[in-house]
Structures are given as C-alpha cells and as structure tokens.
Input
Amino acid sequence: MFITIEGPDGGGKTTQMNLLVPALEKLGFDVVRTREPGGTPIGDQIRSVIMDMKNKSMHPRAEILLFCASRAQLVEELIRPSLAAGKIVLCDRYADSTMAYQGYGHGLDRDLLKTLLNFATGGLKPDLTILLDISAEAGLRRRITNHDEWNRMDDYALQFHERVRNGYLKMAAEEPERFVIINADRPKEEIHEEIVSILRGKI
Ligand code: TYD
Output
C-alpha cells in the first residue's frame, strides 16, 4: 500500500510521520518511510538546489522540473521496488504537492502539470493520501515558533500559502475516495490517534 502525507507548511507532517512509523510497525507492518523532495542520494542533491536561499531567482518552471526529477528517481529507486516487496510505503509529500504549490500556488497550467506528473511518476498514484489541513497563517506561525529551518519555499508570501491550502482542499473534494482530511490545528497526540484509527480501517 502506498500512503502519502500532504498539506501546507507547518501542518506537522514530519511529527506525524515520526509517530506513525513505529505505530504501524507495532501493528506488524513492514514500513518504508521516505520524503520529497529527496529520499534518494540523487534526490537529496536536487533537494539542496531547490531549498537553497541563494536560489531566489529560480523560475517556477525550473522549480517544477527539479521536483519532478527528484520524484522520478524516488519512484523507480525506492517506491516501486518496496511496493513490489509487499511493504507499506509512507511518503512525506508526493505529486499532490506539485499540484498544490506549483499549480494552485504559482498558478501554472494544471492540465499540463497533470501530464508532467504522470510522466515523472510513470503513472504511480497513492492508494491513500492523508491531508493535514491547517490555515496558511497558523502553519507558518507554527514553523516560526518551532524554530524550523526557514527555506526558500517558506519565504513565499502568505497569499501563496493560502492558495496552496485551498488547492489541497479542492483536490481532496475531487478525489474523496483517496483523500482523508485531518484538522491539523490540534494537539499532535490527538491527530496521531485519528490517523492510526483511519489507517487500521483502510489497510
Ligand atoms: P520541507 O522542508 O520538506 O517542508 P515540509 O516539512 O513542509 O514538507 O520543504 C518542502 C517544501 O517544498 C515545502 O514548502 C513544499 C515544497 N514542495 C513544492 O513546492 N512542490 C513539490 O512538488 C514538493 C514535493 C514540495
């Protein structure tokens, strides 16, 4: 089963992944954890180019192609082989992030993006997507109070992050059978328990 965790910045995806992996392992599942951009040695090199605060002049089209390059490598090197071996793959961000950030956030042509994402993933879609939903303002505030490392993507304007959030909600409404929306503006233990109970039902 291929599960992705998505959502605006500051929704606590990493915290939830940290809680979820041992919880699933305790239930007896063989879990592979990964993240985007990155997840492979080549992907990690691409990630540092994308995140670098020195690269402020990066054009959104260049940004997309870098995200897609990292993803293509991750799908072939890690995700497909792990799924073929019967493991659960848990991925922190995937193609929906590109649609939300580059499509809805930057306003790039979403039909074109769909074609590009299909090319990058070889058509591999998640079985289940957990959307940790939080308002742009609350999410960015949380990143600041947690002293999370501030990267080039965080530096986009608040309105950009609002478009991202609304984009996610729209995508979830279009594919209700794949998405589960979780209110992420709550204590982390509460969110964790909700995710585990949903996953127990689905796996
Ligand atoms: P990261 O530090 O991994 O943040 P988070 O913990 O919120 O996932 O940074 C990833 C950033 O890159 C985040 O702002 C979302 C953005 N992003 C895109 O814009 N498009 C994409 O396709 C992906 C995968 C991420």
Summary: The chain is about 55% helix and 15% strand.
